[in-house]
């Protein structure tokens, strides 16, 4: 299904302020139909109107995958070589001999074992192309990532999973329809929101940069700022049965903030309950910011920041700052 055109609905956010003490009236519900871009790194496909992804998302029971490549031989002589899949430890998982007639472009595919452990959600592989002519030998490499979904067909779950390149595990909330991952060490931000049916992440995210997130000078994914907790470490208080509760205490203003994420069976929505407790005797102003970043490397330029919308007729590309 990763080489098929598809369409996806919007991500809907609903905000409503409620006073837990019952002294104040409930705020008016505020609804946002937020058309976050669906996926990054689309590659041309041999099928008209279709696209292939650099990141492959596979079901929870998948044990192997197929990598596809399009290879051009611009030379006037035939070329012989091979294509191989190598894991992050340098082990060759699969290799296939190739031969190319002069001046043609051909497509090939190679199957390989995934080798995921139970605690892994993201792995990196290298596609290695080697070939030779009568005069010399050449090689080329490209990185691909495979994201394996969690087992959540029977009931909602909340589990820890390891992601390649990142030193700390992320927390995953999932049911049979959607899967979301959160990073408590980086402000509790949402890294992924995956539609399990189409196997696509609705958050624009470059997995190759996952290991360098602490040093990059800009925001990424969907981040939250509740009284200064945007880049702070949030403590995990609950992580089970489709519930993830995170807490952050700000010593500067004596405010204690929490986010409780919940997911239910057969529901394509996440529910967030956010609360703030004032531990001092003084009044305090509470501010809540929730913001999606459309590109990890976005620098607010209309020439570089785009939204990509997969549709049945192909990819719609809209400049973020000038096209909305």
Class by helix and strand content?
mainly beta
State the order of secondary-structure elements, H for helix, E for strand.
EEEEEEEEEEEEEEEEEEEEEEEE
The main pleated sheet reads as: 10 strands, mixed
Number of helices: 0
Task: Name the poorly predicted regions.
Answer: 1-11, 34-46, 296-300
* Percent of residues in β-strands: over 45%
Helix content: under 10%
Radius of gyration: 23 Å
Average predicted confidence as pLDDT:
78
CA-based shape: elongated
Number of strands: 24
Q: What is the distance, rounded to the nearest whole angstrom, between the alpha carbons of the first and last residues?
A: 30 Å
Which features characterize this protein?
ten-stranded mixed β-sheet; four-stranded antiparallel β-sheet; 0% helix; mainly beta; 24 strands; 324 residues
Tell me what you see in this structure.
- Strands 5, 7, 8, 10, 11, 12, 13, 14, 15 and 16 form a ten-stranded mixed β-sheet that branches.
- A hairpin with a 4-residue loop joins β7 and β8.
- This protein has strands at 11-15, 30-34, 42-44, 51-53, 55-58, 64-73, 79-87, 92-100, 104-113, 120-132, 137-148, 157-163, 170-174, 178-183, 189-195, 200-201, 222-226, 235-240, 243-250, 255-262, 271-278, 288-292, 306-311, 314-319.
- Residues 1-11, 34-46 and 296-300 have low confidence and may be disordered.
- The radius of gyration is 23 Å and the shape is elongated.
- It contains no helices and 24 strands.
- The chain is 0% helix and 50% strand.
- By secondary structure, the chain is mainly beta.
Draw up the topology in text.
Elements: E1 11-15, E2 30-34, E3 42-44, E4 51-53, E5 55-58, E6 64-73, E7 79-87, E8 92-100, E9 104-113, E10 120-132, E11 137-148, E12 157-163, E13 170-174, E14 178-183, E15 189-195, E16 200-201, E17 222-226, E18 235-240, E19 243-250, E20 255-262, E21 271-278, E22 288-292, E23 306-311, E24 314-319
Parallel strand pairs: 5-11, 10-12
Antiparallel strand pairs: 1-2, 3-4, 6-9, 7-8, 7-10, 10-11, 12-13, 13-14, 14-15, 15-16, 17-22, 18-19, 19-20, 20-21, 23-24
């Amino acid at each position: 299904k990763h080489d098929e055109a598809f369409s996806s609905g919007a991500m809907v956010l609903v905000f409503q302020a409620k006073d837990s003490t019952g002294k104040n009236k409930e705020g008016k519900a505020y609804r946002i139909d937020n058309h976050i871009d669906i996926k990054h790194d689309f590659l041309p496909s041999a099928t008209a109107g279709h696209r292939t992804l650099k990141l492959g998302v596979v079901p929870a029971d998948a044990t192997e995958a197929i990598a596809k490549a399009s290879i051009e031989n611009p030379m006037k002589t035939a070329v012989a070589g091979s294509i191989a899949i190598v894991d992050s430890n340098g082990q060759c998982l699969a290799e296939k001999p190739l031969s190319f007639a002069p001046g043609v472009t051909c497509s090939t595919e190679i199957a390989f074992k995934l080798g995921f452990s139970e605690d892994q959600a993201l792995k990196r592989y290298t596609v290695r192309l080697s070939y030779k002519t009568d005069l010399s030998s050449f090689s080329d490499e490209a990185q691909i990532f495979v994201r394996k979904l969690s087992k959540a067909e029977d009931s909602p779950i909340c589990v820890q999973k390891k992601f390649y390149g990142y030193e700390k595990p992320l927390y995953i909330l999932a049911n049979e329809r959607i899967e979301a991952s959160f990073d408590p060490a980086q402000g509790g931000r949402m890294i992924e929101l995956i539609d399990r049916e189409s196997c696509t992440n609705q958050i624009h995210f470059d997995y190759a940069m996952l290991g360098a997130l602490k040093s990059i000078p800009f925001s990424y994914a969907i981040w939250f700022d509740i009284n200064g907790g945007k880049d702070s470490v949030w403590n995990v208080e609950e992580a089970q049965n489709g519930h993830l509760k995170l807490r952050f205490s700000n010593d500067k203003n004596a405010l204690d903030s929490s986010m409780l994420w919940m997911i239910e069976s057969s529901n394509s929505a996440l529910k967030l309950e956010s609360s703030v407790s004032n531990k001092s005797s003084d009044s305090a102003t509470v501010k809540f910011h929730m913001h999606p970043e459309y590109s990890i490397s976005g620098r607010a330029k209309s020439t570089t920041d785009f939204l990509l919308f997969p549709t049945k007729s192909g990819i719609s590309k809209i400049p973020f700052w000038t096209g909305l």
